[in-house]
Specification:
Structural class of chain B: alpha/beta
Strand content of chain B: 15-25%
Shape of chain B: globular
Strand content of chain A: 15-25%
Structural class of chain A: alpha/beta
CATH topology of the largest domain in chain B: Rossmann fold
Number of helices of chain B: 18
Strand order of the largest sheet of chain B: 9-8-10-11-13-12-19
Distance between the termini of chain A: 62 Å
Order of helices and strands of chain A: HEEHEHHEHEHEHEHEHH
Shape of chain A: globular
Oligomer: heterodimer
CATH class of the largest domain in chain B: Alpha Beta
Number of strands of chain A: 8
Number of strands of chain B: 21
Number of helices of chain A: 10
Largest sheet of chain A: 8 strands, mixed
Helix content of chain A: 25-40%
């Protein structure tokens, strides 16, 4: 029951915001996954997207702007039994947290990252985001955005991310399915979610997306294991925009590589005098 | 005449040369030999920020009782390159000796102070010029009258893992050097006794790492930065033995946020850095305070601003760490004075951070981080190491867990996510008791009082009093914090019969104001001065601000080097003269 994952906290988004669709998808996905709320951790930074964990009945770590990924990584290391889902925005994840985005993909912790990508800063009222198109005029960029847009999916593919997907806030059913698949993937899974911002993005509206998006899995012969095709689909922007799992591959997750998988969740271990003695002995051997 | 603590016997040895000549290995071997001989010692490195070349040195003072400070004057210098003679000859005592290889270094005149040992020729005879350091160590051991078997067992421990051939060659080099050294004995009176099994050789950073493990730390995330890096390296070595994860983060911001994420989830977690990295972490410190998530942060200070002197020492981050982070919140800052305190205060930092749900900072510096001595770890009595969290399954089904429940003390019972049936909301926005965003003014006021004022009162009540020595009836009182402990105490004691009181702060925040005031009542009218490794007299200002006590003045050093015994003796003498203090 997705209602089992609703919190009582009143929602502070603008009416018609794409965030509502994403929230519904997260709650549907959690219901499908069937874990109790106490075994799910939602992590976020700051921005409109980052408020989402408050509206979900699950553990919530709402930290600093840009820093959701390191916090989520630390939490997953502490307790690998938790299902860890990050909800973040294009500014939070690709701007302020850009360095963490790169290195979290390389590190490959078993977390699922849902990026609310509306190509604009909502919380601070309409400045350009890393994914804003070149030339888009805002109050801070009166001559238009000078930078090329950041291309999260291509960056993720280049870094070897094992699960690269694109969703749309206007299709909560499919998005929920992507989140379930992302959680099922062992390692870092990225779901970039296209969403309208009804207040500050007058171009990429719900209707604009609706005319362009299509499901990649409905294309005959599309193989998400093929990196070259994934790059082609990730670059598509304009007339047609591909949704779905663009790329999928397996590599050892951080938990497997670091030895965490062979241990009980770290949080279960109490301080142990015998462990201290082992370490003391190690220093004794090293130094004399 | 050498001014110094009265000792039965002591000798000061310096090994100097270029980076890459194995100076540290020889120094570490000398420490091993001293321990095997049952002697006390203090060792310190002076190194440049480069991997090859330059001039580095490793100084070991050996004696029959604990050595607390480094001295300028040395008895014996092993000079591995010509530059070392020019740089260190001036520090030699009148009867001191320089051990060198005349084939490699031709001194201008033939002075009886030179002890010629053909390091390179002997080493090459055993197959590799790199064994020259072992020849030098052998010669040194021979000169000091250390038995070959003791030196040999140290070499065995060091080289055993490197294969039989390397070990045999080094053994032979040691023996040949020892033969030469025995023929040129240096009279210092050292008598070996049995090694003390309760002691281990440890440096300041290893003591922090050991303290962390003692306290049950399970996660360290950090970004390499001298002089803190060996904390991470030591813990990484431990992580192959025990359930512990050490993660090298992409930057210090990631490091602190990972540690906070792990701590929220129930782990004892830490990060270690130096001033520049600490500056990057400050938003995270504020976050830990807002989330009321325990966190231990080590700042191993080095001279700033910016990159400063990367491999040298300073105490100029005191102001920064007691204030770091935006907004108002409670924190604790500890400043260990020696290796044993580094161990004990790390354990305390974990305990206090955990009980109070706050960030706790350990302020060390390069001098303490790299200082090596034989120490007794752990202490005789057990120090607290249990986590302060709610046991599993405490919340009745469907009850809402209040992560930030308003309580009399300001501390809310802390639940570990998944250990209770309810969920744990932690929020960096101002929040309700449950942990959701709020802008309610009354709630805001209550939360500020909880996080800042109430916790601060609890922390103040259990602040560690400063260490005090000879304060009662003192003619002058000298205050310090952190790594200057040993040198201040040794110098002040050496000034007897003039009575100099020493007050040394191992906790600088919350400042133990009442303890200081009552201590100073025992020395009415005595001028109070501070000795600090910085230019601003930061401790003097902190004391003034927190107690209203006016500090007479400060003896400050900010050349990137620690105070030596001679250094501080001279500077204090100058202070008395220039300020008309007469005894």
């Amino acid at each position: 029951m997705e209602s089992g994952f609703k919190s009582g906290d009143p929602i502070a988004w603008c009416p018609g915001c794409g965030d509502f669709g994403i929230l519904a998808a997260v709650q549907k996905a959690l219901a499908k996954l069937g874990k109790p709320p106490s075994e799910v951790l939602m992590v976020s930074g700051i921005g409109q997207a980052a408020k989402l964990p408050h509206y979900v009945k699950a553990n919530c770590f709402n930290g600093l702007h840009g820093r959701a990924l390191p916090a989520a990584t630390g939490a997953k290391i502490a307790n690998r039994a938790l299902t860890v889902i990050v909800t973040t925005g294009d500014g939070d994840c690709y701007g302020e947290g850009g360095n963490h985005f790169i290195h979290a993909i390389r590190r490959n912790p078993d977390i699922t990252v849902v990026v609310h990508d509306n190509q604009v800063y909502g919380l601070t009222k309409g400045q350009a985001s890393p994914t804003s198109e070149k030339g888009r005029v805002t109050k801070v960029q009166p001559r238009g955005v000078a930078m090329e847009p950041f291309r999260p999916l291509e960056v993720a593919l280049a870094l070897g991310c094992g699960f690269v997907a694109r969703g749309f806030s206007g299709d909560a059913e499919r998005l929920a399915d992507l989140i379930v698949q992302g959680v099922g993937h062992r390692g870092f899974s990225l779901i970039d979610v296209l969403q309208p911002c009804v207040s500050f993005n007058k171009v990429n509206t719900h209707a604009w997306y609706k005319e362009r998006v299509y499901a990649v899995e409905e294309e005959a012969g599309y193989a998400p294991a093929d990196l070259a095709s994934a790059f082609v689909k990730a670059r598509e922007w304009g007339e047609r925009i591909a949704l779905g799992v663009l790329y999928r591959s397996d590599r050892p997750s951080y938990e497997e590589f670091s030895g965490l998988s062979g241990l009980s969740p770290l949080v279960d271990y109490e301080a142990d005098p015998a462990e201290f003695e082992k370490c003391l002995q190690k220093i004794r051997l090293k130094n004399g | 005449m050498e001014k110094g603590p009265v000792m039965g016997f002591d000798v000061s040895i310096r090994i100097a040369g270029e980076a890459g000549q194995g100076i540290q290995t020889i120094g570490a071997l000398l420490c091993r030999i001293a321990r095997k001989s049952g002697w006390e010692f203090l060792a310190n490195q002076d190194y440049m920020s480069r991997v090859r070349g330059g001039n580095n040195s490793y100084t070991v003072i050996i004696g029959d009782r604990p050595v607390a400070s480094m001295h300028e004057r040395i008895d014996l210098l092993i000079a591995l390159d010509a530059e070392s003679i020019g740089l260190h000859q001036g520090a030699l005592k009148p009867l001191g000796r320089i051990i060198l290889d005349k084939e490699r270094i031709s001194p201008e005149k033939n002075d009886p102070l030179f002890v010629d040992v053909a390091f390179r020729k002997i080493a090459l005879g055993r197959g590799d010029a790199r064994f020259a350091g072992t020849v030098a160590l052998g010669a040194l051991s021979g000169m000091l009258g250390i038995g070959l078997e003791i030196a040999h067992s140290a070499v065995q421990e060091e080289f055993a893992s490197k294969g039989a051939a390397v070990f045999e060659a080094n053994s032979a080099c040691l023996r040949e050097g020892h033969d030469i050294g025995r023929g040129k004995p240096y009279d210092w009176g050292g008598v070996p006794s049995g090694p003390d099994p309760s002691k281990i050789i440890c440096d300041g950073n290893e003591a922090v790492a050991l303290g962390a493990v003692y306290a049950g730390c399970r996660f360290h995330s950090g970004y390499p930065m001298t002089p803190s890096t060996t904390i991470m390296e030591t813990l990484a070595a431990f992580s192959s033995e025990i359930p512990l994860i050490v993660e090298q983060a992409e930057d210090e911001i990631a490091a602190i946020n990972m540690a906070i994420g792990a701590s929220y989830t129930g782990l004892r977690a830490m990060t270690a850095t130096s001033g520049g990295g600490f500056a990057l972490m400050t938003e995270g410190i504020s976050l830990a305070a807002m989330l009321e998530t325990p966190l231990v942060i080590v700042n191993g200070q080095r001279p700033g601003p910016a990159t400063g002197l990367p491999t040298r020492t300073e105490q100029a981050d005191l102001d920064m760490v007691v204030h770091a982070g935006h907004g108002e919140f409670a924190r604790a800052v500890y400043a260990p004075g020696n290796i044993t305190e580094a161990f004990e205060l790390t354990i305390r930092a974990f305990d206090v951070a955990d009980r109070m749900q706050i960030p706790a900072i350990i302020l060390t510096d390069q001098y303490l981080a790299d200082m090596v001595a034989p120490v007794c770890l752990p202490p005789e009595k057990d120090l607290p190491r249990a986590r302060h969290v709610l046991p599993r399954g405490i919340s009745p089904d469907n009850a809402i867990y209040l992560r930030y429940k308003l309580t009399e003390t300001g501390i809310s019972p802390r639940a570990v996510p998944s250990w209770i049936s309810g969920v744990v909301y932690a929020d960096s926005d101002e929040h309700t008791e449950e942990g959701h965003i709020t802008e309610d003014g009354a709630l805001r006021t209550a939360m500020v009082e909880k996080r800042f004022l109430k916790k601060n009162a609890l922390l103040s009540a259990e602040a560690l009093p400063p260490r005090a020595k000879n304060v009662s009836g003192a003619q002058v009182v000298v205050c310090g914090f952190g790594s200057t402990l040993g040198v201040i105490e040794e110098v002040c004691e050496s000034m007897a019969p003039v009575k100099i009181g020493c007050i040394h702060f191992q906790q600088v925040w919350p400042f133990p104001a009442a303890d200081l005031a009552s201590l100073l009542k025992q020395a009415p009218g005595a001028p109070v001065i501070t000795v600090e490794n910085n230019a601003g007299g930061q401790l003097a200002k902190l004391i003034r601000r927190e107690t209203g006590i006016a500090i007479h003045g400060s003896v400050l050093k900010y050349d990137g080097r620690p105070f030596t015994f001679e250094d501080l003796s001279t500077r204090l003498g100058e202070y008395w003269r220039t300020h008309g203090i007469r005894f």
